[in-house]
Amino acid sequence: VRIVELPEIEAVLDEDAALAAVEDGFRRMQRGGVHLAEVSHLAFGDPPGDCHVKGGHITGDAVFVFKFATSFYRNPELGLSSSNGFMIVVSAQTGEQLAMLRDQGYLTDVRTALAGAISARAIVRPGSKVLGIVGTGIQARMQARMIARLLGLTDVLIHGRSMDKAKALAAEIGGRAVALPELCARADLVVTTTPSTVPWLRAEMVRPGTRIVAVGADTPGKQELETELTGRARVIVDSRVQCVDHGEAGWAVRAGLIASDALIELGALLERPIAFEPDEIVVADLTGVAVQDIAIAKTVWNRLAAA
Amino acid sequence: VRIVELPEIEAVLDEDAALAAVEDGFRRMQRGGVHLAEVSHLAFGDPPGDCHVKGGHITGDAVFVFKFATSFYRNPELGLSSSNGFMIVVSAQTGEQLAMLRDQGYLTDVRTALAGAISARAIVRPGSKVLGIVGTGIQARMQARMIARLLGLTDVLIHGRSMDKAKALAAEIGGRAVALPELCARADLVVTTTPSTVPWLRAEMVRPGTRIVAVGADTPGKQELETELTGRARVIVDSRVQCVDHGEAGWAVRAGLIASDALIELGALLERPIAFEPDEIVVADLTGVAVQDIAIAKTVWNRLAAA
């Protein structure tokens, strides 16, 4: 087995190939060509933490992938990252382990940003110019970069709980830190990237025609968009089951504002693009699905194997 | 993460410590002190194969363990082992990966043999002298060695589908290759170790008072003991759920010969030993449980960490 550490992963990752692989993964998931293993989970109480193992195989692929990830929330008190994990790439011909990608969460960050960019491209209004980013962490930075690259939205407004961090990020990526009302008033596309449990975006703030990509809600209890806002939007989901369980869509479904079968899966949207009305509010609710992990790990492995 | 290859694992494994840890694992499972993750599984059709990921944590342990195992049945045609896999030892304090044990199935073989020896000790008739082994593979060899060591049964009879292999194994471990009727007529304790789907031991062959440890049946369809034999025996199971699903016990339960709540879990037997009647037939049905993997991986890690 080849043990691959983060610097080598960063060096070989081809973002264009990864983008294509993740998009292809969503399409194949829609067509029924992805086998996902049951998620295996352990929870810890003292100190609090959890461990998730997810994996799957895209039919026809030479490899399959499992991702092992832990979160121990008090690690920062010890000077350690709360997240740890790796992806394992395995031959679908022999079951032999080919590579252990010790990515320290990097590939998860990238595949999340790629799904954001893919969703943004699928829902963006033609002629859009201004990107609004809510949050100042890794996803804020990555989403801004990917979307600027893919859609050419280089006029970037940033809002965060800490305006100092928003200013720092704005300086870094060439954007501008603004108050939330200004961001909502000017952005054509808003990407929310925070682990908030209190919604940032209220229905009354958001203009008709705004397109929103929400990547923060990935476990029950998290919410970045007011239920009323999601309830009145056209909602795209990366996985109907997951988003009803713990995404933005779930809040609106539970409130009776939207039916779960009205949710449109991202794979279906990619296969059959929709011409949204110019003044429709469209929300892409991304909770993160295993096919993204499979796709990005496969991309890295293909480069390693070819080298 | 420390990558540990098979030779180092073999060098540091302390069988006494592993035996104690596996027995302790069964007891703790009984007392409710083991958290097991859901098993994650992928099946492959062309070529046929499967992948299982199992893991768990024994309450209070400093580490938890996941085992990743694949079986690709046509690998031998390529000159490869059908089985591949590893165990990963993770800190239960921080979620950091401590070691990847690349044991090539060795630790699974050992923990299976240890469970056989632990079961044998719990059900053996006082004064027993003769051990009968059915099968000639790795488990036949390992069970013979462990049971001889733990119970002092050094008069060993061996039967296998291939009498040449039975003779070779007999020569290696100092036993004698015999026909099955002779084995049944003389053995006090019989250990069946084959992946058979056709029962070896028929009810009429087995003398009253015979104690049987069956380790072969680990997936649906496998069966080493005639249903009638299991149905008239006192049956110990490593896991009621697993043994009803795919162990020897399942055949007798489905035939209506035994009630599933009459099955006695090994952990319960260890906690509250039973004085079996001298002429009772007692069967220990072992399908393999995750706590064995956790226990043996922990044992290896403790030695590595102390060194």
Q: Please identify the oligomeric state.
A: homodimer
Q: Treating each run of at least 4 consecutive H or I residues as one helix, how many helices of chain A?
A: 11
Number of strands of chain A: 15
| Proportion of beta-strand residues of chain A | 25-35%
- Name the helix and strand elements of chain A from N-terminus to C-terminus, one letter apiece: EHHEEEEEEHEHEHEHEEHEHHEHEH
Explain what this protein looks like in three dimensions.
The first copy, chain A, has helices at residues 6-12, 15-31, 106-123, 138-151, 163-173, 180-186, 227-232, 240-246, 248-254, 266-271, 290-306; strands at residues 2-5, 34-36, 40-45, 48-58, 63-72, 83-91, 97-102, 130-134, 155-159, 176-177, 189-192, 211-214, 234-237, 264-265, 282-285. In chain A, helix 2 (15-31) packs across helix 3 (106-123), helix 2 packs across helix 11 and helix 8 (240-246) crosses helix 9. The first copy, chain A, is globular, with a radius of gyration of 19 Å. Chain A is built from eleven helices and 15 strands.
